Amino acid sequence: MSDQPNSPRDTELTFDVPEMYWHFDEASAMVATQQPKVACILKWCGSGLVLDLGCNDGGIASRIGQNGTRVVAADQWPYVQAAHSKYGLPAVAFDANDPLPFASGKFDAVVVSGLLEYLNAPVALLSEVKRILKPTGRVVVIAPNRDSFWRRYHRWKGLPPRPEARFSLRDCRRMLAEAGFNIRTYRGCAYRRRGFPGRLIYLLERLLPSLVTDFGFLCEPSRT
How do the domains of the chain map onto residue ranges? Predict the structure, then answer.
């Protein structure tokens, strides 16, 4: 398939989620139910054996598993402990700076959401994701947009961006290509926010989806 993403104008549904839930527990039950990026994950991850890499407390992984999909949750130890105790998920602790503790060609899909922006070597992690995917597998990558209207507003107000945002749309495309992935589909995720600035930014994001809050990519391993 082509390695060019679909038009950024193809934007997912949006939901009104209080910002307190984004800042303090991104995988809380409310966020796992309503965040726009979760709509991308549920639509794209498909069936088979799915790995949620960087699962936080397992809220999103538990949503993936509700349709009968087999899910493995993976993150640092405190998070995988929570994912197992709260949702009964098979959970594996890992260090994202080391090779992933999974056999090659094991998974039908891997979800990487809210993880790459915290790594020193995100391309190395994506290369490991390609290794553990089946040749016909898929990876769902969600990353916050460095150039979003919301983060521009935060910088203008002198506020720290949450979550951390290091990548532009061009950066994400480059990293995925370097790791050996073709982009099948792209979605921009815009968020409804409370108050006048938030509502205005939401409207701007819908008009210019390349400046949305989060990027969503559905990718497949390159055949070359």
Answer: 19-221
Task: Pick the closest to residue 172 from 151, 194, 201, 142 (CA basis).
Answer: 142
Q: Which CATH superfamily is domain 19-221 in?
A: Vaccinia Virus protein VP39 (3.40.50.150)
CA distance linking residue 57 with residue 157, whole number of Å: 31
Task: State if pTM tops 0.85.
Answer: no
Q: β-strands 91-93, 133-144: how paired?
A: unpaired
Among 220, 117, 134, which residue's Cα sits nearest to residue 176?
A: 220
pLDDT digits (tens, 9 = 90+) for 68-94: 899 999 999 888 998 999 999 999 999
Identify residue 201 by its one-letter amino acid code.
Answer: I
**79, 94 Cβ separation under 8 angstroms:** no
